[in-house]
Write a structure and sequence with these properties.
The chain is mostly helical and 90 residues long. The protein has three helices and no strands. Keywords: Membrane, Transmembrane, Transmembrane helix.
Length: 90
């Protein structure tokens, strides 16, 4: 992977992760690094799912692919926040 690809993955990971946090109601105690990592994984999985469904390459903006990515990021942020909450002493 080239350095430009790495920066692009980080940028899209931050955007997708941030959008995923926006669709989850309430406040999540998730770090910025965790949000970016969840966003990168969600972007990759969403693109793979869109490819399998045959909607990855459409004219214009790929809204279905973006919706899959953001939905997966929202699920990932929720799982990460719940996992982190369970580790805290009560």
């Amino acid at each position: 992977m080239e350095i430009g690809g790495l920066f692009t993955a980080l940028l899209f990971g931050a955007i997708i992760g941030g959008m995923g946090r926006l669709v989850v109601p309430g406040r999540q105690h998730v770090s910025l690094l965790a949000t970016i990592l969840v966003g990168i994984v969600a972007a990759l999985l969403g693109t793979a799912a869109a490819t399998v469904l045959g909607v990855a390459d459409t004219p214009g903006i790929d809204w279905i692919e973006l919706a899959l990515q953001v939905g997966l990021a929202g699920a990932g942020v929720t799982l990460w926040a719940n996992r982190s909450r369970q580790k805290l002493p009560r």
